[in-house]
Amino acid sequence: MTALLRAEHLSCALPSDGGERALFRDLSLQVESGEIVDLTGPSGSGKSSLLTALAQLNPHASGDLTLQGRPVSAFTPQQWRTQVTYLPQQAILTGQTVAEAIRLPFTLAVRDGGSNGAEIAEDAYNGGRRRFPSLLRGAAHHTTDRLDDAAIRRMLDALGCGDIELDRPPHDLSGGQSARVALARTLLTRPKLLLADEVDAGLDDDNAAKVAAIMTRAAHEGMAIIRIRHRPPDGASSRTLVLSDGRLHGNDAAHDSGSTDILAAAHADGSRSGTARPEEEA
Questions:
Q1: Beta bridge partners of 243
Q2: CB 29 within 8 A of CB 242
């Protein structure tokens, strides 16, 4: 079976006063559809640089990348990044309101036009309905450059953002709120691989669990996720990679007792069986 993402001979060296400082060299990894991989390691070991390298956002990195067997050279940078999406720890939300910030990728896709334009927005929305049926149910007034307010509301509520109004200016959000709004936006664009850089940093345990639950739901619907984490294991990941001294060390992470609770939370709305909770039908 072909891996979703395969990386080989991945290296990254940063300019320094003495020439170059190698963060990592000749790394190899692969990720399968539907798995969540935790990436850990000491501060400064290059975890964020590794994720940006996979997303083709790191000018100091090199290596061979394939997505579902196709080399990175077969994609334009935009095409690659719509499928392999990097979500930074410090969210960037552009727009006058939270709703505008979440709709931005759809609007840009339509404006761009061509084979990567309106089709991307339409496919992303339709794919979102398949992947997150209960979160997008009832979005009947969708157009190619917009998502229905109700659809955005459901996704935000699932991430513990029920107190964030859609007309709220993004600059009024806290760091944790901004991170979750950015995660909602990214999930709605349905990348094949989500590269999440400490999106649960600074969240309390309850909201971190909600983020883990929605990621678990996305993984069960086929999305692959690599997430940088410094929190204790939450049972959502299938394995852990440790980046240290320029090398990747991997192990299969045993699901702890928290995994049962996360899976239950991820499907508490009946999305797995297609049955809605009574309060969601109201």
A1: 248
A2: no
Residue type (1 letter), 66: T
pLDDT top residue among 280 and 199: 199
* Other Cβ atoms closer than 10 A to 82: 20
Quick one: pLDDT at residue 256? 39
Question: Token pair for residue 32?
Answer: 């399968």
Please give the Cα distance from 188 to 223 (Å, whole number): 12
Domain count, the chain: 1
With tokens 């170059």, the residue in question is 20
As to burial, measured by CB atoms within 10 angstroms (0-12 exposed, 13-18 middle, 19+ buried), residue 206 is exposed
Q: What are the respective helix, strand and coil percentages of the chain, to the nearest 5?
A: 40, 25, 35
Output the pLDDT for position 146.
Answer: 58
CATH number of the domain enclosing 89: 3.40.50.300
